[in-house]
């Protein structure tokens, strides 16, 4: 019954998002179309040609990224609930993101106290990839990103902190809102996915952030119980 509920929640979000996705994808396509028509001008300087082409490509990449992020969320993969080892899943996530961190000379530390969770493996990984990717993007270039977890009673707290840009209070309010992004080429879908996944695990997300100092996300998840089986 719980899985059913989570699924109908997700379906509602997927349809609500579809309109937003078409809108957000139509914009860059319209802009790209504009730049391509400009390229047809007969005596256009090479400089202008390069600028228009670069802008058109950037816009297309953004459209593509929105579709990719949306589909990562909406793809009809049925939820597969199983017992998961937090340590195993987070070391997978670290492996995925290490190249991005190294490329930007970012120190990525993951210290996990293992915990047994109940939920969908792909979703859990996706949520932590999104959180850590944001942290890495916030500290670029250089900087530190750290994830650690502690088991307390029947739940586990996973803290992800960075010493990066931080967020203004008005931006903290908007985090997780579909398409809210402050990044050039951002999609504003990553945190929405994080909130949806954490909700499906019946957990919570807490955020503390200070502009110029960094952010700290605390994800609290209930441990796997015998009744979940
Ligand atoms: P995107 O990364 O595509 O912009 P997200 O939904 O992942 O979309 O994040 C939305 C916004 O939240 C980001 O654009 C950024 O402004 C803010 N944000 C998220 N995580 C962090 C962080 N660790 N530090 C600073 N800002 C963050
Ligand atoms: Mg993101």
Automatic annotation (TrEMBL):
Any one GO molecular function term: ATP binding
Catalytic activity: ATP + protein L-histidine = ADP + protein N-phospho-L-histidine
Histidine kinase domain residues: 20-225
Top-rank taxon, per record: Bacteria
UniProt entry keywords in alphabetical sequence: ATP-binding, Kinase, Membrane, Nucleotide-binding, Phosphoprotein, Transferase, Transmembrane, Transmembrane helix, Two-component regulatory system
Enzyme Commission numbers on file: 2.7.13.3
Name of the protein described by the UniProt record: histidine kinase
The organism of origin for this protein: Paenibacillus chartarius
